[in-house]
Amino acid sequence: MDFEHLGETWRNRSADVSSDSTSLLISRIRQRALELETIVKRRDRIETWSALIVFPVFTWVSVVGRFTVSRIGSGILAAACLFIPIWLLLARRPAPDPSLPLCTALAMERARVEGQVRLLKNVVWWYLLPLGLGVVLFLAGPWSSPWQLTAIILSVGALYGWIYRLNMRAVRLELLPRLQELDQAIASFQNET
Amino acid sequence: MPELTDRATDEAAFARLLESHGAALRRISRAYARTAADQEDLHQEICLQLWRSLPSFQGKSAIGTWLYRVALNTALSWQRTSRRRKQHDEALAHEPSPSSTGETPRDEKSILEEFLSALAPVDRIVLVLYMEALTIEEIADVAGVSPGAVSVRLHRIRKHFTDRYLNG
């Protein structure tokens, strides 16, 4: 077997591939596309409705709340309800068009993963801090004794610390290795360009 | 190819595309996935991406170029998101070649599969397209690099193959 005959061997492989009928395959593809669309629509609906419900509630409390501290906390939470989805929307980059040349698609995918890394590394500033501060102030109104305040701060700190760790874990175990892999692939493309 | 764009959402057009290029798509799935279940999964993923991308096909490139781009971009992306598959591939890549172990020579298909698994992703792309009988210019167009770069890489792959299986 020499190199020039590889193509022949390769193309002969199609003969031993079991393949479904085209119509069955298309029906599966259509089903899968529909499922994906349903998942995305459901997620968007949940996010939109959550914001639509939570935002007016906190806005209302920030105006008519009994405790000043809670009113400030509610205001922060209401603002965060608007700010976080908008921030995510602006930061979200679509997956590259798969019909692009491979080299271009890899570079775009790299930029997308890099954006995700940046987003998660800064999660404290755009997610944890506004929400954490808002929740602490909101609860600190009715529960203002030193013990209660300490318990609130510790609980919120523990919860948000755990969320922060989850984010950093995703960066370390998922995104950075993917970024490294993309870098290698891009470098490999560029070596002989 | 405005005709195709007009029919982009037409199932019949998609069916014709699958019928004319189905075998190539199956082969690509086999080059990037090891087990039958993974191959089927990747094949469906490629078909799904083709289905979703077809409406945006504007005929700026040949249908073959477009199809190979979608298929290979999807295969690379599928491979990246599956660490398990990657580890499996890496394990295969480190398997010794038959010539070095003194085992009886295997059939051409298994040698080809082993060689493909051992290649770096970019080299695998170039070899797959070469074996699909694309010209150097067409491979360069799919990959987005210069024809010269493809030639150099192909030469290196050929040398690697010769060293491993013919001179080893």
Strand content of chain B: under 5%
Mean pLDDT level of chain A: 88
> Which stretches of chain A are poorly predicted, pLDDT < 50 over at least 5 residues?
none
Major beta sheet of chain A, specifics?
none
Structural class by helix and strand composition of chain A: mainly alpha
Number of strands of chain B: 0
**Helicity range of the residues of chain A?**
over 70%
Q: In terms of per-residue confidence, which ranges of chain B show pLDDT below 50 for 5 or more consecutive residues?
A: 96-104
Q: Give the rounded overall mean pLDDT of chain B.
A: 81
State the CATH architecture of the largest domain in chain B. Orthogonal Bundle
Determine the strand fraction of chain A and express it as a percent band: under 5%
What profile does the largest beta sheet of chain B have?
A: none
Order of helices and strands of chain B: HHHHHHHHHH
Strand segment count of chain A:
0
Interface with most residues: A-B, 44 and 59 residues
Examine the coordinates and then state which fold CATH places here, giving the name of the CATH topology of the largest domain in chain B. Rna Polymerase Sigma Factor, Chain: A
- Count of separate DSSP helical elements of chain B: 10
Q: Distance N terminus to C terminus of chain A?
A: 30 Å
Q: Assign an overall shape of chain B.
A: globular
